[in-house]
């Protein structure tokens, strides 16, 4: 069957993967309200397309933290990609590099920072979970730096793991043939068997719940790499991120896997963008599945977006070719959305090209602007 949109890989992945792996990739927290809302909210934003503009040439290139990429579509960190495909993170790294865009490698990858670096050139960010043992963190950040990673995405929404009921039912654990490669030498590469989700127990045992704003400053004492704060949903935390020295903000609810009934990221975005006042770039992840979604995020002030689940589903279905394919499809859809709304470059995409349901005064669940 020919794939015509990136969502179609989910059904193929479901057929191919063991239930425990598919459920881990697909699910969200508790009622999964936010999971559905991350998608639904995009459908409450409509276009105000402009016509009769020469759109024979469309330029989607941009720079992120000074790095030139071919399009504002990047890859979010998703853990344990070798559960999806034997080549896992290698395949993702190669596909991102071929598409001229950025891959973010998860702390909990099943390939190490050095292994991913050895796949060849490419602009890569490293996602960091802060362990209780700060020596572990310092070592890992140093290794990421040496392996040529260009920024740290510090995940701040996970002092504890959200309740993902499928993982609890499945007693989720890493398959025995895989390890969290970055931690292998530190004896932290495996999760113990647990009576609920093995990952939730691992987080409870290893991840530092005391993490606070002063640690964002501490991180800057151990690395020169720019820090993106990943998991901001409010104006207040956008301001604190900037005060703490963040080089950028990622509006994220962790793919709806942490606090259920958090707002969709596309609804939280504008509040954060306004608070940032252009001092640092603001990015978004969560529910981006169409080129029109990318356009909407940029119209609301995002400098770029990241995709999570589509990558693991494409990997499970077709490996590197699948990841290349979703990046290509999103690119083409985004280019078409630009053309059909009369925008030739990213800077021509404005707030006036869309209308949202919170632009209408009768809507009481509007984000605070
Ligand atoms: C994630 N996400 C995530 N985030 C992070 O900071 N570190 C991680 O290791 C992971 N791992 C992970 C695994 C899986 C299977 C998923 C689905 C998500 C969250 C991820 O970076 C991103 O925020 C969301 O996936 C974006 O939403 P979509 O595109 O999946 O809707």
From TrEMBL:
Database matches in PROSITE patterns: FMN_HYDROXY_ACID_DH_1 (PS00557), FMN_HYDROXY_ACID_DH_2 (PS51349)
Provenance organism: Salix brachista
One GO CC term on file: peroxisome
Keyword Flavoprotein annotated: yes
Binding site for FMN: 77-79, 106, 127, 155, 230, 252, 285-289, 308-309
Cofactor: FMN
Record-stated family: Belongs to the FMN-dependent alpha-hydroxy acid dehydrogenase family.
Biological process terms in GO annotation: defense response to bacterium; hydrogen peroxide biosynthetic process; oxidative photosynthetic carbon pathway
Gene Ontology molecular functions: (S)-2-hydroxy-acid oxidase activity; FMN binding
Pathway: Photosynthesis; photorespiration; glycine from 2-phosphoglycolate: step 2/3
Protein name, UniProt field: (S)-2-hydroxy-acid oxidase
Name of one Pfam family that matches: FMN_dh
Catalytic machinery residues: 254 (proton acceptor)
Principal location listed in the UniProt entry: other
UniProt catalytic activity: glycolate + O2 = glyoxylate + H2O2
């Amino acid at each position: 069957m020919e794939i015509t949109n990136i969502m179609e890989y989910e059904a193929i992945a479901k057929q191919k993967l063991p239930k425990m792996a598919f459920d881990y990739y697909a699910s969200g927290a508790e009622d999964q309200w936010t999971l559905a809302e991350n998608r639904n909210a995009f459908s409450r934003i409509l276009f105000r397309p402009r016509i009769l503009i020469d759109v024979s040439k469309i330029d989607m290139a941009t720079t992120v933290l000074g790095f030139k990429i071919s399009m504002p579509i990047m890859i979010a960190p998703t853990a344990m990609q070798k559960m999806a495909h034997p080549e896992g993170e290698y395949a993702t790294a190669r596909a991102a590099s071929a598409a001229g865009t950025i891959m973010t490698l998860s702390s909990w990858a099943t390939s190490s920072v050095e292994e991913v670096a050895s796949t060849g050139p490419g602009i890569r960010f490293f996602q960091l979970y802060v362990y209780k043992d700060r020596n572990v963190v310092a070592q890992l950040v140093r290794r990421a730096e040496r392996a040529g990673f260009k920024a740290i995405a510090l995940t701040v929404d996970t002092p504890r793991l959200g309740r993902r009921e499928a993982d609890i039912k499945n007693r989720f654990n890493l398959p025995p043939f895989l390890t969290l490669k970055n931690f292998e030498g530190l004896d932290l590469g495996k999760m113990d068997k647990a009576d609920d989700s093995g990952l939730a127990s691992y987080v409870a045992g290893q991840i530092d719940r005391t993490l606070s704003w002063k640690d964002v400053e501490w991180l800057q004492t151990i690395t020169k790499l720019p820090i993106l704060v990943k998991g901001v949903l409010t104006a207040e935390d956008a301001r604190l991120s900037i005060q703490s020295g963040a080089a950028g903000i990622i509006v994220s609810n962790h793919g709806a896997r942490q606090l259920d009934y958090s707002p969709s990221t596309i609804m939280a975005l504008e509040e954060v963008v306004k608070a940032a006042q252009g001092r640092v770039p603001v990015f978004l992840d969560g529910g981006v599945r169409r080129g029109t979604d990318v356009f909407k995020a940029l119209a609301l002030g995002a400098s770029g977006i990241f995709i999570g689940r589509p990558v693991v589903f494409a990997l499970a279905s077709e490996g590197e070719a699948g990841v290349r394919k979703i990046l290509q499809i999103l690119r083409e859809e985004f280019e078409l959305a630009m053309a059909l709304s009369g925008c030739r470059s990213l800077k021509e995409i404005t707030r006036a090209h869309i209308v949202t349901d919170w632009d209408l005064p009768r809507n009481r669940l509007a984000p605070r602007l």
